[in-house]
UniProtKB/TrEMBL annotation:
It comes from Streptomyces pilosus. This is tRNA (Adenosine(37)-N6)-threonylcarbamoyltransferase complex dimerization subunit type 1 TsaB. InterPro entries: ATPase_NBD (IPR043129), Gcp-like_dom (IPR000905), T6A_TsaB (IPR022496). GO terms for biological process: tRNA threonylcarbamoyladenosine modification. PANTHER family: TRNA N6-ADENOSINE THREONYLCARBAMOYLTRANSFERASE (PTHR11735), TRNA THREONYLCARBAMOYLADENOSINE BIOSYNTHESIS PROTEIN TSAB (PTHR11735:SF11). It comes from the Bacteria. The lineage of its organism: Bacteria, Bacillati, Actinomycetota, Actinomycetes, Kitasatosporales. Pfam families: TsaD. One of its GO terms (cellular component) is cytosol. Residues 32-145 form the Gcp-like domain.
């Protein structure tokens, strides 16, 4: 097994290789505006670090969000393209699950990432491997009662200490954690979902309401 894992659902552009036993190479850079520019060089970098070629990859793992439309689709389109070119399966993993796995907590907690617009993408967990709620997007104040008293991880939690007073790192997802979680689930015989994006809301850029289509006569 050689899994190529990547995620662009948060400001982190993160890539890792997992050989079935553990992560053998990884790269993470935080830059919310350069996902498309940074992702392919990061993939080249981890392959070079591992001394392997792309055609050695037997499966692709990609974070499916939730996340902003533009950043998230960079990773998803790249994963789909590699899957088709290499003829290997592409597995989707919820980005919040990757953060939860990296948190390595064995009691209830919350994962919250920054959704912009003064909102967070979030979910509650029983432990680092067990999600209790579906991913959602809300204003922190609106979920204060649901998350009260719980530890929290993720950039969204760190941004809103009034709602998440027990927030701590990890701040962003890492492809290394995503790869370890996917490898663990695959080894247990679980079927990972297809890489369908969790956008949860419409993209920020939209066609103006009064936009007029002009056609040539």
């Amino acid at each position: 097994m050689l899994l190529l894992a990547l995620d662009t659902a948060t400001p982190a552009v993160t890539v890792a290789l997992h050989d079935g036993d553990d992560v053998i190479a990884s790269s993470s850079q935080v830059d919310a505006r350069r996902h498309g520019e940074l992702l392919l060089p990061a993939i080249d970098r981890v392959l070079a670090e591992a001394g392997l070629r792309l055609d050695a990859v037997t499966g692709v793992v990609v974070g499916i969000g939730p996340g902003p439309y533009t950043g998230l689709r960079v990773g998803l389109m790249t994963a789909d393209t590699f899957g088709l070119a290499l003829g290997v399966p592409v597995h989707g993993v919820c980005t919040l699950d990757g953060l939860a796995y990296a948190a390595d907590l064995e009691s209830p907690f919350v994962v919250a990432t920054d959704a912009r617009r003064k909102e967070v993408y979030w979910a509650r967990y029983a432990d680092s491997r067990t999600r209790l709620t579906e991913p959602a997007v809300d204003r922190p104040a609106d979920i204060a009662g649901e998350v009260a008293g719980l530890p929290a991880v993720g950039a969204g939690a760190l941004l809103y200490p009034d709602t998440f007073p027990r927030a701590h790192e990890p701040e962003h997802v890492s492809a290394a954690a995503l790869a370890r979680l996917a490898a663990e689930r695959l080894a247990a015989g679980e079927e990972l979902p297809a890489p369908r994006p969790l956008y949860l809301r419409r993209p920020d850029a939209q066609v103006p309401k009064n936009y007029k289509v002009v056609t040539p006569k």
